[in-house]
Amino acid sequence: MSAPQMPHMPHIGVLPSGALGTIADVSGVTVGHCTLDQGPIQTGVTVIRAHRDDPYRQKVPAAASVINGFGKSIGLVQIEELGVLETPIALTNTFGVAAVAQAQIRAAIASNPQIGREWPTVNPLVFECNDGYLNDLQALAIQETHYAQALDRAAASFDRGSVGAGRGMSCFDLKGGIGSSSRVVSVAGRGFTVGALVLANFGRLPMLTVDGVPIGRELAPAQRTQAAHAAVSKPEQGSIIMIAATDAPLDARQLKRLSMRAAAGLARTGSAYGHGSGDIALAFSTAWTVAHDGDFVSTPPLLNDARLDPLFHACADSVEQAIVDALWSATSVTGRDGHTRLSLRDAVPDLEQRLEQRSA
User: Which InterPro entries does the protein's record reference (predicted)?
Assistant: First the structure.
C-alpha cells in the first residue's frame, strides 16, 4: 500500500524561494546528516558547511543572537568577539556537544597541524537541543565518528525532518526536527538569497500557527476543557536553533541584526520563548572570507544598513517556512521507554482541508 499523500505545504509570505527551497540555495552551502535509529537511541548530528574550502584558513563573517539562553552550545563567546566561523556549524543533542566539539577540533588539527602550536587554537561551534523525550540522553550515544560521517555526507541535496540532529526532536507536541527554506530578494538592483535551516524542538500544540492559521487550537483535544487549559499553561521547555545564510555582502555587525530577525519568524509559528527554551539564531555570509594568515582583510562593498529591510523580511519568512518544513517533512518516531511523537502527516490526515477551512 502506498503512503498517503502529504498535504501541500503552504508557502509563507510573498517572496519567492530559490530553486532548491533550502539553505543550499545560498551558493556553496551544503548540509550533511548522521542519523542514529536504534531503539531507545534516536538522535544524530547535522553539519552545515559554509563553503568547500578549509573553514579555518578561509573564515566567513558571522554573528549570533540569543533569543532565550537556556542552552548548552559551545563557541558563541568567540563568535561574539571576532565575528567569524572557523569550523563548520554542527547540531546535535545536549549531551553530545562535547564529543562533537572534540571531533571538530581533531578535524581542524588534521588539516592544519600548526593549530595550538604556531597558530592560535580553533573555535568549535556546536549547537544543541534536548531530545531526551524520544532519545536516551544518558547513553551518551553521540561519538566523534558521527560528526565525521555527517561532514563527509554534506551536499546541496539533503533530507529534512526526522534525520540527523533532528531525529529525536519534538515540535508542538508532534515530531519535529530539521527544516529548511530559502527566499530570494532584490536589493539595490541585485538579487540576493537568504536561506534558513532550523533544528525545531519547541512549542505546545495549542500554540501552533501555520501561515497565520491557528490550527493548533483545533488539533488540541477539547481545548476549552480544564485539561486543555493545563496543556496551554504547561511551561515551554523546548528549544530551537536557527541558522541563516546569505550571499549578500554583510559584515558581522549587520549579520547580528539579520540573525535577530529569525525571532520574528519563530514568533509567527506560536512560540513565546519560554523560560526553559534555548532559542539561538546565527547568521553568516558567503560573500567574502577572512584569510587566516592575511595582514589585511579585503571586503566587497557592503550593503548600506538602510537597504537591509528586504533581507530582514527574507530571514523572518525563511525561518518561519523552515519550521513548517520541519513539521511537514518529519516521520513518526518511537524511542526511549516507548515514547512516540506522531508526525503531522500521521496526526492530522485531513490537514489540507482544515487549513483551507480556517483560511477561507
Answer: ArgJ-like_dom_sf, Peptidase_S58_DmpA
